[in-house]
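Before relying on records like the one below, remember that each one covers exactly one chain. Contacts with other chains, cofactors or solvent are not represented anywhere in the record.
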Amino acid sequence: MVNEQVPPIPLTTDAGKVFVSITGFVSVGSVVTALVFTLEPFVANLWRE
């Protein structure tokens, strides 16, 4: 379930916006990595058949 995550106060500085962007990329990367490691054995079996 995806939930909108909004900071409690609006971001006004460029440093804050860069920080939020980097944490967003890290979060998405973590999800993609978890999916790849979880689904890799299943996909490998399908590929061999």
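Helices lie at 14-48.
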